[in-house]
Amino acid sequence: MALCSYQSYHCIRKTTAIVMGMIVLLMASTASANRVTLVATVNNQIILSPANWSIFKLSDKELQEPIATLPRLTGTVHLPAGQYRATVKQKHITKQTEFRVESNTDRTVTIALD
């Protein structure tokens, strides 16, 4: 009987540790990644022709590679809190804007191409 209780005790401890780890990971991913919707417009209307988005983190002065790219006219990325620059290219037009992502806040970034 004592052996059964000892095994049950360790089984419960392992299960509790796994569940707690999953909760911590879920909370960390929720707090660190916020949804950012990217929209390109012409005449205040969402464009329907192809466009390419690049997202750069402004704190990475030496790193000039984008941290995210989207090969479509609109889309959503999940970014941790911080300062960013979004660049959108469509045909021969390139526009950009800087924006801030705050914790637990969804955001829409709109760039007018006209």
N- to C-terminal separation?
Answer: 78 Å
Tell how many strands the DSSP assignment holds: 8
Globular, elongated, flat, extended or rod-shaped: what is the shape? elongated
Number of helices: 1
Helix content: 25-40%
Characterization of this structure:
By secondary structure, the chain is an alpha+beta fold. The protein is built from one helix and eight strands, in the order H-E-E-E-E-E-E-E-E. The strands form two sheets. Strands 1, 2, 5 and 8 form a four-stranded mixed β-sheet that branches. Strand 1 and strand 2 (45-46) form a beta hairpin. The termini are far apart. 10% of the residues are buried.
Quick gist of this model?
With 114 residues, this protein is of the alpha+beta class. Helix content is 27%, strand content 44%. Residues 27-31 have low confidence and may be disordered.
For the structure shown, list the relevant keywords.
four-stranded antiparallel beta sheet; elongated; 114 residues
Please give the structural blueprint:
Blueprint: H1 2-32, E1 34-42, E2 45-46, E3 52-57, E4 68-70, E5 74-79, E6 82-90, E7 93-101, E8 107-112
Parallel strand pairs: 1-8
Antiparallel strand pairs: 1-2, 1-5, 3-4, 3-6, 6-7
